[in-house]
Design goal:
single chain; 71 residues; alpha+beta; four-stranded mixed beta sheet; globular
């Protein structure tokens, strides 16, 4: 990861399964699943086809990773 790559922090899911997502400390958006998160990242300038949500140097997942499903 280089200095120009955004750092993504994805908060724990709330009671409805939504997560707050921040890129480089800016903005805060509630998203419900990985597909929504990847779309948000596309809008933030990342290519979702070249982003691995399991990649630990770009993503920080609080409370369940990218494969978490609401029950």
């Amino acid at each position: 990861m280089d200095a120009d790559t955004p750092r993504v922090v994805i908060a724990s899911p709330d009671g409805q399964g939504r997560r707050c997502v921040r890129v480089d400390g800016g903005g805060l958006w509630a998203r419900s699943d990985l597909r929504d998160i990847l779309e948000f990242l596309r809008r933030a300038g990342l290519d979702p086809d070249h982003v691995d949500p399991h990649e630990g140097t770009l993503f920080t997942w609080d409370g369940g990773g990218p494969d978490w499903k609401q029950r």
